Amino acid sequence: MISTRSFIISLCGLFLLFTSCKNSKEYSVDSAFADYLKRFETEASAHGRQFNPQANGLIIEFGNLSNNDAGLTHYETPIRIQIDRTYWNAISETAGADQMKEDLIFHELGHGLLGRDHLNTTLDNGDWKSIMCGGSTVNNRPWNINYRSIRRSYYIDELFDVNTSAPAFASTQLTVDTTGYAKSLYLSFNTEAKTDAGWPISEDASHKTSIDNGQLRFQSKVDSVYMVYASTPIDILSDFSYQLTLEYPAGSLTNQYGIIFGNMPVNSDVSSDPIEYFTINNNEKMYMGNRSWYSYFTELTEPSILTAGKNTLKVIKIGTMLYYFINSSYCYCSEIEITTSANQFGFMVPPKGTVWVDNLLISVNSTSKTGMKVKQNFQPEFKIQSAKKFNLNKGYNQ
Ligand SMILES: [Zn+2]
Distance between CA 57 and CA 139 in Å, rounded? Predict the structure, then answer.
């Protein structure tokens, strides 16, 4: 964010400049931010820009900001940046802390040292065009930005050159080969037989499962997110395809439901279990992320979502990339966060929600380099687990 008092503060700065030059080159950067400032200077140098804040002055300090502001840049002399302590501490406890902190500090230095304003346009795939997104909200979209892996180098190029051309990952065309996947596990949910229904058909105080018109009906009776999953011999490090049809006809439009894969919780109250998720809501929004992070990577508006009816979500993994499809339409690609073996696949049910699922299909590409032979006649283990902590936060403003 840019301080709205910046003009007044700049005048004060001018006044101070005439009365006393003592502090105009003050350099005071809290040790928490020093490494990110150094990275910025290194990136600036690689992009033909030289800064010497140690000599020219810069203040980066913690503050207690309001209105869900993560950072605030004051155009004083020297530039003074405040970072919200609550937000910084919150993201510090999550897997994506380093990327999120770099994004925040680079954004504020974009204001303070590069003189950049907010830029809230998007790329063709719906990603924010710039890490300079912030300020006045656009269609109530959260500021969550997928600042990771291949996106990082694009966003840094764009930070130093607003005319950087659109990156390949932002194309709406699918350019990879998604053939060669053979069925490994399929559930039709037509009968209560284990081979059709997978999960036990039962009821207890927290949930109820039943077969309803050729679908699995899962009713949650608790206030936490439910993860319903199966342990399989399919390693998510291999190239796989996972699809499931879901319907969530009642409940809040903002509640997320969708598919999950990875390592399910050992302790459901700990949010560090690395579970990948791909969710939608009945307000045409799509989300992707990993439970160990502070929140979803970004929110997208996807017209291919049927806001009343069944939606088929599919994710195809090729190498380190995940390709996301809704009702057969290609939507987005992004790196998988998990780098170690995991073999669980399932779906996510909103608090006290009832979800109908159908046609669960997991396929494996045995021809690819990372492919694997799946054992014949394996018996998946079906599990149901509520998760009290499931980070689905809105990112703070920057
Ligand atoms: Zn800003």
Answer: 38
What is the Å distance from ligand 1's center to 238 Cα?
A: 40
CB within 8 Å of 93: residues ≥ 6 apart: none
Residue 260 pairs in a beta bridge with 277, 346
**Cα angle vertex 278, ends 272, 279, to 5°?**
105
Question: Is pLDDT at 265 greater than 80 in this prediction?
Answer: no
- Which of these ranges, 2-16, 28-42, 45-59, 222-236, has the smallest mean pLDDT? 2-16
3-state DSSP assignment of residue 298: strand
Q: Measure CA 123 to chain center.
A: 16
Phi, psi dihedral angles at 248 (to 5 degrees): -135, 80
* Per-residue pLDDT at 195: 93
Q: For residue 118, how far is its CA from the centre of ligand 1 (angstroms)?
A: 6
* Averaged pLDDT, 149-163: 97
CA distance 41 to 53: 9
**Could you read off the pLDDT of 347-393 as tens digits, one per residue?**
999 999 999 999 999 999 977 554 444 555 577 889 888 877 777 88
Ligand 1 centre and the CA of 30: distance in Å?
Answer: 20
Pair of tokens at residue 373? 């032979």
Quick one: pLDDT at residue 268?
62
**Tokens, residue 347:** 């779906």
Domain with CATH 2.60.120.560 in the chain: 182-387
Q: Rounded distance, CA 133 to CA 145, Å?
A: 9
Query: Cα–Cα distance between 58 and 48 in angstroms, integer?
Result: 20
For ligand 1, a single-atom ion, the residues with CB < 5 A are: 1, 134, 398
| Residues 321, 340: Cα–Cα separation, whole Å | 15
Measure 29 CA to ligand 1 centroid, in angstroms.
Answer: 19
Tell how far the Cα of 135 is from the centroid of ligand 1, in angstroms: 6
**For 79-92, what is each residue's pLDDT tens digit?**
999 999 999 999 99
Angle at CA of residue 21, ends 11 and 61, nearest 5°: 70
Q: How many CA atoms lie within 13 A of 40 on its CB side?
A: 23
Distance 69 CA to ligand 1 centre (A): 9
- Give the Å distance between the CA of 4 and the centre of ligand 1: 11
Architecture of domain 182-387: Sandwich (2.60)
